Amino acid sequence: MNTIRNMILLFVVGLTLNGCKKTEPKLEGLAFKAQLEVLFPSAEISSITVQDHFKEAFQLILKQPLDHNNLEAGTFNHYIYVSHSDYSKPTVLVTEGYSASPRTYELSQVLQSNQVMVEYRFYGKSRPEPIPWEYLKNDQAVEDYHSIVTKLKQLYKNKWISTGISKGGETALIYKSKYPNDMDVAVPYVAPLINTQEDIRTENLINTVGTKACRNKISQFQRHVLTHRDAVLKDLNAYAEKENMTFTQVPMAEALEYAVLEFPFSFWQWGGNCDDIPTEGASTNAYFEYLIIISGMGMYNDEGFNRYLPSFYQHMIELGYYKFDLEPVKDLLQVVKSPSNKRFAPSGVDLTYNPDYIKNVREFVENMGNHILYINGAYDPWGACAPTPKPHVDALKMVLEGGHHGTRIKDFSEEDQQKIYDKLREWLGDKVEVFPIKASK
Predict the structure, then answer these.
(1) Fewest CB atoms less than 10 Å from the CB: which of 22, 59, 146, 276?
(2) Separation in Å, CA 363 to CA 127, 195, 367, 369
(3) How many folded domains does the chain comprise?
């Protein structure tokens, strides 16, 4: 009797287990677009222009959950771009930090890979109006990536590599810390992990990088602009009229002072040339035009202010940002008495900073973040906040001497590029082919 009872029990358990198994969608024999339609049945899928080595490319508008922990909260339209090369090739996941538009990333060229580019939630075309701020969290974005990757791995079964630039690179590191096994390799470019809401380390870098003569020239430039503010504001008015810019959120006088405070950071971030900085004897207009080249007004006019609201919300609550150096011009400030990047975050929203979020990410990547290739420029202020893997971690940090926020693999010497490619081959295996990019001169 016991034997019969046990056989019946095993039969019932077997039926239960089989009933719980998820049925994998049938993809074999379908065209690529049809496969995407099976994997993402509620998505709007349309063809886009095929670029470079890709054979097919599609825009997908997903119905992404606002809250992955509460599906009843609703959805938003989430834009991703899938560029198909070959099923046997590796796949590069681009974790954009902001909006996204289809283009081929450097790593996709190096590997001749498939590419999946994901616009960050609530940026660009993926932005609902009004923004439900409580769902604009990095952990929610990570769940976006995890759900997308889990589905696409049914198509792309070779190696997966995540990559991103700046905030996108930081996002790749956050994703790696939350789902270490989703990606075989991560390649963050110029990606900071910032310690505090306004990190002083960036200020320390801009006060030590380059030559003292160049740093003095930068300070003199800042002071000249503010001591000639009336003339510069006339130029700004003319510029705003020409570019159809309005300044109701941040008035022009305030925007000018913030642009001057921003100047040293942007100068080093984007590889400014000290010889190009106007000096005494140059016209006020020359000073204004150079201020526009380096700092710009893209963040201060109404359109830019609105565009970057999601970014500054995230910086102020989880990611952190940089701190302004007031020393060169504090006696000349008339409008901005207590400069803070909180000025550019949404008002009427809780901006309580979580000091542990990035700290935990840093702790993971520096101590357990294997198979991460860091690409940085030595003169980039964000590099002051870049993680440094511990000696026991199987990672590689490459810093280009004199490099800036635009530093890429192609900018390194042939010798250093070879070091990068050898490490990629080691991590990805011999079956993954690498196509070296010609080194910049």
Answers:
(1) 22
(2) 31, 11, 6, 9
(3) 2
Phi–psi pair at 235, nearest 5 degrees: -65, -40
CA 341 – CA 320 distance, rounded (Å): 10
- Of 302, 321, 344, the last residue of a domain is 344
Q: Is 406 helix (H, G, I), strand (E, B) or coil?
A: coil
Predicted pLDDT of residue 11: 47
Residues 165 and 50 in one domain: yes
pLDDT of residue 359: 97
Give the residue among 190, 187, 188 at the shortest CA–CA distance from 90: 187
Q: What is the mean pLDDT of the chain?
A: 94
- Residues of the chain with confidence (pLDDT) below 50: 1, 7-13, 15-17, 20
Q: Which positions ≥6 away from 377 have C-beta within 8 Å? A: 190, 271, 383, 399, 400, 402, 403, 404, 405, 406, 407
| Of 204, 208, 167, the residue nearest 188 (C-alpha) | 167
What is d(CA 183, CA 92) in angstroms, rounded to the nearest whole number?
Answer: 9
**Rounded Cα–Cα distance for residues 296 and 270 (Å):** 12
Are 372 and 338 within one domain?
no
Contacts of 68 (CB under 8 A, 6+ apart): 140, 143, 144, 147
Does 174 lie in the same domain as 224? no
Strand locations in 256-415, DSSP E?
Answer: 321-322, 373-377, 396-400
**Beta-strand runs (E) in 85-235:** 91-95, 114-118, 160-165, 185-189, 198-199
How many residues does this entry show for the chain?
A: 441
Residue 123 and residue 99 in contact, taking contact as beta carbons nearer than 8 Å: yes
User: Rounded to an integer, what distance in angstroms lies between the CA atom of residue 161 and that of residue 93?
Assistant: 6
Write down the residue that tokens 């905030």 correspond to: 167
Model pLDDT for residues 306-333, shown as the tens digit of each residue: 999 999 999 999 999 999 999 999 999 9
What are the structure tokens assigned to 152, written together? Answer: 């696409």
Domain final residue, candidates 276, 310, 344: 344
**DSSP-assigned letters across all residues of 234-285:** HHHHHHHHHTT---SSS-HHHHHHHHHHHHHHHHHHTT--GGGS--BTB-HH
pLDDT score, position 439: 67
